[in-house]
């Protein structure tokens, strides 16, 4: 739930899919990218793919449960991810670059040092998924990544459509 805090800023009461969670997840991705810069659109795709890695053919088991219409996350997470990245930048946990390609993000020495302090089972799964994600998708240029996402977005979460249609039948 989002509530309005002082000065009209949103306040997030839940950790799941909050800017903080998205920002932390993307720190793992940027650390695995090992200094390669990523723009916001690429990071939005990466955030989806690291959480729902099981949607990728041959990918590891997804970190979060498969939910209906999960592909719509790609459409609604832009602000959450941007806010999360800004939170990480304000703590100097990532670098924000302004160049001819626009705004890009990459890891810093603090990114790696900070992530080294996180030793939970979930953090280990994020490390593994981030390594897999970067090895699979980093060499795709922006157009190919965008095409991959567009070609598959309709399938992701669609396995629940049949169940929904059956439950809507009156017998």
Topology (elements, then pairings):
Layout: E1 2-4, E2 10-12, H1 19-32, E3 38-39, H2 40-51, H3 73-76, H4 78-90, E4 95-99, E5 102-106, H5 109-116, H6 121-137, H7 142-152, H8 161-168
Antiparallel strand pairs: 1-2, 3-5, 4-5
Helix pairs in contact: 1-2, 1-4, 1-6, 2-6
Structure, explained:
The protein is mostly helical. It has one domain (2-168). It has helices spanning 19-32, 40-51, 73-76, 78-90, 109-116, 121-137, 142-152, 161-168; strands spanning 2-4, 10-12, 38-39, 95-99, 102-106. A hairpin with a 2-residue loop joins strand 4 and strand 5. The longest helix is centred in the C-terminal third of the chain and has 17 residues, at 121-137. Residues 160-171 have low confidence and may be disordered.
Percent helix among the residues?
40-55%
> How much strand?
5-15%
Order of helices and strands: EEHEHHHEEHHHH
Characterize the main sheet: 3 strands, antiparallel
Separate helix tally: 8
State the total count of DSSP E strands: 5
User: Based on helices, strands and strand pairing, what is the structural class?
Assistant: mainly alpha
Low-confidence stretches: 160-171
Radius of gyration: 17 Å
User: If strands are numbered along the chain, what order do they take across the biggest sheet?
Assistant: 3-5-4
The dominant shape is globular
Distance between the termini: 37 Å
The averaged pLDDT comes out at: 84
Number of domains: 1
């Amino acid at each position: 739930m989002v509530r309005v805090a002082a000065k009209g800023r949103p306040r997030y009461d839940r950790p799941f899919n909050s800017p903080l969670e998205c920002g932390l997840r993307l720190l793992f991705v940027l650390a695995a990218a090992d200094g390669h810069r990523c723009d916001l659109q690429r990071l939005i795709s990466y955030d989806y793919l690291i959480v729902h890695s099981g949607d990728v053919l041959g990918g590891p088991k997804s970190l979060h449960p498969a939910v209906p219409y999960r592909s719509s996350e790609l459409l609604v997470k832009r602000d959450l991810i941007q806010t999360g990245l800004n939170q990480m930048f304000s703590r100097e946990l990532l670098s924000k670059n302004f160049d001819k390609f626009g705004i890009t993000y990459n890891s810093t020495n603090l990114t790696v040092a900070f992530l080294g302090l996180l030793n939970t089972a979930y953090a280990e799964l994020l490390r593994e998924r981030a390594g897999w994600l970067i090895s699979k998708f980093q060499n795709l240029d922006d157009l190919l990544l965008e095409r991959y996402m567009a070609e598959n977005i309709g399938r992701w979460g669609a396995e629940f459509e049949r169940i929904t249609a059956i439950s809507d039948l009156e017998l």
